[in-house]
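Colleagues,

Please find the record for the two-part complex below.
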Amino acid sequence: MSRNAGSDVKAAYLFIAPAIIGFTVFVVYPLIRSFYLSLTRYNGLTDPVFVGLGNFRRLFTVDPAFWPSLRATGYLVLLYVPLSLVLGLALAMFCNQRFAGVRLVRTLAYLPVVLPAIATITLWKFIMNPQVGLLNTILERLHLPTSLWLQSPAMSMPSVVLVMLWGVGGTMIIFLAALQAVPTELYEAARVDGAGSASVFFRITLPMISPIMLLQVILQTTAALQTFNQPKILTNGGPGFSTNVLMLSIYNNGFPNLGRIPQLGYASAQVWVLFILIIAVIALTAKFTSLWTYSDNTPD
Amino acid sequence: MTTLPTEAAAPVVPVTEPPAPRPPKKPRLIGTTAWYATALFICAVMVVPLLWMITIGLKSRTAVFDIPPKLLPTEWTWSNFVNGPEAIHFPRLLLNSTVITALSVLGGVLTAMMAGYALARLRFPGRKLWFYLFVGSMLLPGVVGLIPLFQLYKNIGWYDTWLPLIVPAFLGGNPLFIFLARQYFLAIPYSIDEAAKIDGAGHFRIFTQVMLPLTRPAWITMAILAFQASWNDFLNPLVYLYSSEKWPLSVGMASFISAFAGQTPDWSYYMATNLLYMLPPLIVFFAAQRYFIQGLGALGSTNQK
């Protein structure tokens, strides 16, 4: 048996070796290196110069673009995450009913998620064109007020979020799986007791799917904090700094247009600000978990 | 009456739920009408932008900018589907995307399955530790790696090659896949390994000839997710690839619409090409729909152990 166990260990490390190498090179190394770089001035050509917390001081006290980028990121998260969760859940509950054709609705609602992000984002950039875009064309035909959408400083971020919400089918599918896992006896018992649909939703549905809801809050917030494609392609941060989210700012500092000097140390400091924000979100959500999620008390 | 057209379309999709009959209660006509009105609205929101994209793709280059805009093209310009792709060297970009995606799917699925097999079915010291490290690394935002890895690739001469887009996949790639693979391997009865071992099979043979066929749904799901991730990836190729002849479709398509030196992008060309760019993921989706749903269901339940 011991001989067998020995061969198990050797085989195991052979099977797992690629993942361990990958973990070291793509997780451990960048984590340490990026923390070090955040404390340096570094242009990618000459050696990094250690500057202590200088980058962070510059971020928080000098850089006129940093606070707007933090504000834009916060605005995006606060607008997108609640809307995505509410719409996703509503759509899931809608598609969880028994009607002929419900599968078609489900498939179509999920369709935008399948399409390449770049393809749908660029499509929406044209849909939101104020002069010839589909959105204003439809609004005009219905005699509703039109908008400059991405070109207006006030509407640019809501427009970006609107484009992101077109992919709400992704949230829907996950909530749909969660809804279908709720035991039907609970609903039957509630019906026997004469519970109204509101109390069924708040006392059965919501508590039963709360673990998935929690996971979605964490995943969607961390993903939203790292939004890059939509603002990059739709607005490139404009107009003004209205959609210049943190990721875009990191990209522009670290990988600027030709002719400008990359500020890799400075961009690394921004990465760490983002990273700490993400950790804070996860920690806070986890802290409040026990307050509002349902658990069936199976410790393991 | 309103139910008829959708009724006919429904059975195309594979059946996944028990065909429980609708409760034959009082006729909820108002409820039904409201449901179908909402359903129609949802479908319109999802489909109309795509239909509109196709009509733009069929309009002539100037008709796109007609004011007021017309919904349908007055003259149908099918040549956009030839000239548009030609304008951005679509065939080359398609080839690039295909090679990058195929290799990263292969690498990502293979190495995640291997790691999942070891973590789930082999006993070795450190097995719990590695599992937690891999799962924990799911929380690490990708952006943390961007700058150090960019410099690393530059130093070893990988900048402006496809290697940064492919090699990471062969090194465990996505920790989520390792997690999914492990969960799937845990569900397979151990008596199967025992039987294979008695027959004299080594771990390599058990893995390739016993486990891979048994875990087909798991690796198909992963392959689809990996395909989507690689086909859609924009930031990594944008950062790591400089020469336009090495770009995948995502970067090529995005550069198509950024106006160079005040030039207006050719929207009708663009939309025609965009349709072609969307086709492969669409085909994969409709061919493997149930794996999509399965995979995402697995994602949804990741916190349930």
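The radius of gyration of chain B is 24 Å.

Comments are welcome before we finalize the supplementary table.
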